[in-house]
Here is the input.
Amino acid sequence: MATFALINFVAAIAGTLIIIYNAQRATRVEIAAAMELAEHLVHGPIEQLARETAGSSPLQRLPIRALEALPLRVRNLRHVRIEVLDTQGRHVSLESERTEHGRSTEDAAAPRWFAALFRHDDRRLEIPVNFGGRQVGTVRVIGQSSDEAAEVWQDLSEITLVAGIASMSALALLYLALGRILHPLRQLTLGLRQLEQGDSACRLSPPRVRELAEIANSFNSLAGALDLEKRDNARLSRRLITVQDDERRRIAMELHDELGACLFGLKANAASLSKSTQLVGPRPGDAMRERLSTLVEIVDRIQTTNRRLLKKILPMSIGHAPISDVIADLVADFQRHDPEPRIELDVRHLARSYGDCIDLTLYRCVQEGLTNAVRHAAARSVVVTLEHIFLCSRDGSREHAAVSLRLSDDGHGMGPGTTYGLGLTGMEERVRALGGTFGIVSRPGGGTSLQIEIPVDDAPWTPMRSPTHGEVKHDSCAPGR
Here is the structure.
């Protein structure tokens, strides 16, 4: 529209210049013709006056009366002005001049700057008037372009008004036409931006224009295919994580049932042998009891390591206890082994369980986050927040449930360019495989904040009030959540 308006403006300027140029040429020609005609019209009355006063006495008719008696009738003559002067250069008032001035066109006069474009007042002709054999005055014919400038100005004003109305009408029609075309394209742009941001559930309403409706339908087909692929990938990712967790569970069961039983039997047999050493002499028995005591200590350490490994591979309480209690037990275990930093757990409201896959992911993220805060961040305090939230879609048309984990510490933070270790990398891959978001905000000396959100639309949600960690809180769907 700006281009169209600019073209109209340039065309109007060019048309105005052409009109003014042609009017200037025509004015010069008309002034020359008008002055030639005026010269013939003025010569006749002067010669007639000379014949009528040839025998008159200067006392009978004064020169001034003779000039006033000039029968000049140059009315309706364009582009010239007639002036009668006496010998002293003073103007002589004529009846015809008074009549001509009486029909002044001041109302249609052009502005001075515009009239200056047509000015040709330097062309003038002076005709002497003789009375009684001597010159008594002069008739001056002056070329004048003010009336032509006034006419051109009036024509331009009318043309400009009509052209302006036509241009505004064309712009209004163009605005309506382009708006009808661009509105669907704007919706298409928004839809593509949503697809770029990962929202494959967006759809476009087909517009009335057939060509644009085909584009909208193609977009919806593409979005549907992407959404289907995204769901398939999410299902496969969940399946992969489930298979991995099942394998971990199987290994944990093997360690618990096989290795645990073997260690228990080994310890029991060592204890039985220790009692049997009482039947042997003091000196050999003491040596045997010392070896058996060392063996029992080794078995105890292996059992402790086995239990720690079992808890790391798969906490036995996952799936059997509320996730809030499992996380609270993990935090208490960290606090028991290392009282520094001080860990604060804030569970706003959670379901009892979101399934082993999500529950274990939350457990691993808290475990890895606390490990990093204790070992690497040198933090003095850590705040762990778990809550069930509702997230709006990007267009605000719907909401979906998610579980949010925020872990913030006041440690020395991560320096710029720091790469993730295996723990954070595995954590991020697991969260994203579940369709969640993973983010870390860190400033050197300003601490680190870990933010994780995992969608749980398929999980049953039963709000629980934690007996030790605050009240139930419901988050409404609001922008930015």
User: Anything to note?
Assistant: Residues 2-167 form one domain. The chain has three domains: 2-167, 210-304, 321-455.
